[in-house]
What we know:
This protein is mainly alpha-helical. The protein has helices at residues 4-18, 23-34, 42-54, 80-91, 100-108, 115-143, 149-176, and strands at 21-22, 58-66, 69-78. The chain has two domains: 4-105, Winged helix-like DNA-binding domain superfamily/Winged helix DNA-binding domain (Arc Repressor Mutant, subunit A); 115-176. The protein is globular and about 60 Å long.
Amino acid sequence: MARRADTIELAVLGLLHEGPMHGYELRKRLNLMLGWGRVLSYGSLYPALKKMLRANLITEVATTTTPTSRRPRIVYEVTAAGNEHFQRLMTEVGPTAWEDDNFDIRFAFFSSTDMEIRLRVLEGRRSRLQERLARVQGELERTQAEVNRYAAELQRHGVESVEREVRWLSDLIQAERGGPPATAPAPSPHD
């Protein structure tokens, strides 16, 4: 499993790859990227930034003040070493690339990734989810009679969510290969 600090590092390098940002803007963009379920606190962000500064992956380029705050805002920028490290991280295709904690961040920066690597990551993620799906479906069949209706409904919802993500990944893989979507499009409400 990827450590949270590694995931934050990848995300920060990816965002700074797009251009310099101050801590508040980084946190805001990271929270949008991570989604509603995983909010990043300043207590997690600033230690990661300090570690990245010490490793020469990023640098402080300027401080700015705003009319609403007398406190200066430090602007961070990725260094050449940081760019190289980001590119190296984006070419990794092992299990950490498709784990729940890391996949979303990597996917957000797929435009910086070679097609073959994108395909390997997507296929790895799909394979991992298919394994999870088989396990959850087996558990659902075994426990259906033993659990109350709400617990069974929650399990069914989990199965449907994983099935939906597997279909989505299959469509992405097919699109990467230049073919038509693997699943039929949903009918329009006017059909």
